[in-house]
Amino acid sequence: MKSIDERVDLTAEEGKVLHDYLFSTEIWGIYELNLFSVSSPFLSVSLFTRYVREMVRKSDFLMEMSGNRNLFHTILLNGFLASIECEEFTNAYYFKRVIEEHFYKENETYFRIVYLWAEGLLDSKQGRVKEGQKKMEDAVRIFEMLGCNKSAEYYRKTPDS
Fold first, then answer.
1. How far apart are CA 145 and CA 83, in angstroms?
2. Nearest in space to 51 (alpha carbons), one of 70, 78, 69
């Protein structure tokens, strides 16, 4: 719904149900990760970060499973990018640290390239524009070299790039 209409928000009751369910579940598996992932556009960056801290605590050993791993990395990258875009740099550095602790395997190239681009965005937003632009351009160039033209175009046209 949120992707169709930006005005759609989570009601207080829906937010409470989501919170109560996720925070009362002892171990987060694929269902909880999916629920959190699809709910994330409704959360502020600070609330999203708080939920991610809970996710990391409750799904540590499950994140190494391949299906969970991709979803886990997607959630972390989305949080990293959202924090940078909102200039919530403390949260951005939290995501950066967690990503680096659970860094992508060599066969997870897409995540590595998007992470390089996101690091460039962070550098740019914090005044290291030249270094940031180079990282972002490098990421786009890698997408192009790999024939991932839609991804290259998407990241080339992102407003802050």
1. 29
2. 78
Nearest to 98 by CA among 76, 114, 78: 76
| Of 106, 108, 107, 133, the residue nearest 119 (C-alpha) | 133
Structure confidence at residue 6 (pLDDT): 62
The reported pTM is: 0.73
Residue 3 has pLDDT above 50, yes or no: no
Q: Which of 90, 31, 96, 87 is nearest to 58 (CA)?
A: 31
> Whose structure tokens read 């066969």?
107
- How many CB atoms lie under 10 A from the CB of residue 136? 23
Q: Are 53 and 61 in contact (CB under 8 A)?
A: no
Q: What is the DSSP code (8-state) at residue 147?
A: T
Contact 136, 161 (CB under 8 A): yes
CA distance 30 to 70: 11
